[in-house]
Amino acid sequence: MASTGRLSSLFILRLLCLLGQINPSLTYSLRNCTILYQDKPSPDVSFDCSNRKLVSVPNELPKTVGSVKLNKNQLWQINRDDFRNMSKLRYLDLTSSFVVRVENGSFTDLVSLKTLLLGNNQLYTLTDTIFQGLSNVTVLDLSFSNVRTIHKSAFQFLTSLEILDLGGNQLGELTAIQGIFQLPKINWLGLKYSEFSVFETKNLQLSHPSSLKKLSISSYHLKKISITTPIFPYLQLIDLSLCFVDNKMKFDIPDKALLGNITQLFLKDEVLTFQRIRKVLLSLYSLRHLRLTLVSGWIEKGLLLTVCKIPTLRKLDLFNNRFEKFSLNLSSCSQLTELDLSNTGLKKLLTGSVHMMKQLRFLDLSANQLKKVPYDIRNLSSLEILRINDNLISKLSCEDFVNTTHLKELYLNKNHIRIFRKCVIQALSCLKVLDLGDNNIINFESTFRVSFKKLEILDISNNSLRVINRDEFQGLQSLKQLTIEVDDFLNLDCLTGLDNLQDFTIFKSSRRILKSPHSNNYKKLTHLKLLKSLTVIYRRDKRNSCIVNSISYFLLMTMENLEIFRAVNICIEILFGNMFKFNPQLKSLTLIESNVSNLNRAFFQPIPNLGTLEISKSNIKSLDFLVHSNLSALKYLSLTENEITVIDEMIILSLPSLLYLDLSSNLLSCDCSNAAFIQWIKNNNQTQVVDAHQYTCAFPKEQRGSLFLDFDDQSCWDEGNFLYFIFNTCLVVLTLFISFIHHFLKWHLTYTFQLFLAFLYDTRKRKNIDPHQFDAFVSYNVHDEDWVHREMLPVLEGEQGWRLCLHHRDFQPGKPIIENITDAIYSSRKTICVISRNYLQSEWCSREMQMASFRLFDEQKDVLILLFLEEIPARHLSPYYRMRKLVKKRTYLSWPQAVQHPGVFWQNVQRALQTGDVLTENTDLLTGPGGC
């Protein structure tokens, strides 16, 4: 049956595809590319075709595409038709694709292209028309593409070009790139790892000065930089970060006026002699930003004394030098506002080294070997950002930051701090960002109960905290982002007062998770209305198993505007049905490495706005939890690295808004159970099944490793063709037959069915019931109960002394109704049917009447008395075929006709009850005088 049902669904799916006339070119079964998912769709659809071993540009790319990544392939050649009519393409990446040749006119139609990346290829030659049509390109990467010759008109079409990287090519003569300097909007030119031996402006014949502002140049062979002509009046940055030569390079700029706009100079390695670098620095009278890396020799010789004499200098980068062997002294650099000393091997910063920098706003001391906060920091009253992370600091003093009252960002993460007293930062009233993660802090001594009205981001994760106490963060009224980790309990009372919290991340390593809030503070927690993102991450225990515990219901019910929920390493026990009852705005749900194999549809009922669902590495075996799951808004569904074998395509079709489906790394079965899903992947024109053409078979064994979409499902269709015919033929005939029966024989069948039931009960009950327990069973409708009690019972039971059976009084409680009716009819000598219009409309009265009628004709005894309370035309008795026939043939009792003589009426009833049971030819089956 299951196989037949699946074949039927296959047939229906094929029929829908045929009726819909699906155009294969519009489907989302992409063999070579992936459409990048966009939470907020834009007109620029992005395709990722990278790293697919492509030898040509895929023809499945639509002409309306906005972005294409074709990097890391084996294209070899770009042809003239590859991008024809793609007038909306804005971004094209062809990096590392072994491109050797680009046909002339290949980019002609790319009139909207802004970024073209052609780096790390084998272009060799740039022809005069290679960039034809690219008048709107602003970024062009040609680095490491083995370019050797450039036609003098190659760049003439790039009238909007601002950024060009030509580094790593085999260009030996500056004149080869002369046309670049004439581009009207050129801003940045990269020439690192070039083949230039000299860079002399006198060799350039330009019709007008260049607009170039930033020049990055280096070469293993560069021996001389000479700027002797005013062709770079706007040049602001010279980057010489990669010049490796044995002989020192010459830097020739005789006229200081030619360097009047130079504000940035980047130098790496000691490419000049010490005397020449001093001379160069002193000639740059507008320099504001100086970067010196891997120049420890220069610094040891005292170059910083020269540097500090540059009056315009504001930013100094000295990262990636080594200062272990000598003392660093920057006491004369009082003009600096930014100083980077990261990764310099500093074990200590001598007192007085930076204390004179009264204007310093940014200081980076990260990735060194400092064991304490340098003393000089106490004097940096203008400091706004301090990075002292990734050091060996184990203890903080209350005086370390006493004078840095303007500090806005403080990074102390990745140290060895164990004790953190509130006096350490109590003077930092302007603090907005504080990172104390990755230390050994055991408690905060009520640090954050003190008011930090401006603190917005706090990270205290990966410490040795066992408990976060109640009201721990009550002084952080402006906090927007909180990241914490505790080993034991997290008392939710600690969140009291965080009215502006938007992003909350919890790292947890214990099996116990969240302690419910104190009842007195629960109402305060309901102020977490601005929280939009919650992340709960459990550390793996020693057995590498997921944590079995509950995320506090009280925590989630305070977050009525929660939009993003992410959990890592949790088990099914926490996923109760009403978990998100108070989070109807949830839009994104991610569960990673979580044992949720028993997930059910009730879990999703409270979150109808869910647009993104990602469940990976979580032992999911089936998609049944998606059936009737209230996920009509779901657009993104990722179920990677699970154990799914069979996908029912009808479940996927129940998600009407689904645009993106990722089932990579599952245990897919290549047999007829997945045939319909395979057809759906190939034909649907709404949902993209990401990398479907790369899915492989896990079952059966003989198919293992083969491609999922290569499974030949034709046998599945052939096997079912005859079954389709038989099934559909039978379905049509059955539908017609049922329609005929319902229209013409409805009431006949109903009556026959009731007689059959009466026969069954008669056969079973006849011998087990003592006869004549009652003189008569009264069958009546509840609407006529008042007449029975007011008129009938006083006469028949009171005056005449008959024993009557009434359903409300004599039916046995707990017994099925149909059995009570049967027992009452067969244990009574007679059955009195009190007939009214309500009686005729009652199902149970109809059954009582039919049961008594069956007894009448089965036993051939005079057992039935019809008593009409209303004048009812014979045509109204038609649904009750047997009654109409008997009324026409026999007499009956009529209460409306006896209104004037009720005494006579009750005498006739008495006479009917006295009549014997033997039925003769002269005996009326329906006792009573009169007629219709």
UniProtKB/TrEMBL annotation:
Entries under SMART domains matching the protein: LRR_SD22, LRR_TYP, TIR
GO biological process: inflammatory response; innate immune response; signal transduction
Entries under InterPro entries matching the protein: Leu-rich_rpt, Leu-rich_rpt_typical-subtyp, LRR_dom_sf, TIR_dom, Toll_tir_struct_dom_sf
Location within or outside the cell: Membrane
Entry annotated with the keyword Repeat: yes
Family that this chain belongs to: Belongs to the Toll-like receptor family.
Entry keyword Membrane: yes
Sequence intervals crossing the membrane: 722-745
PROSITE patterns: LRR, TIR
Domain TIR: 772-913
Protein name: TIR domain-containing protein
Signal peptide boundaries: 1-27
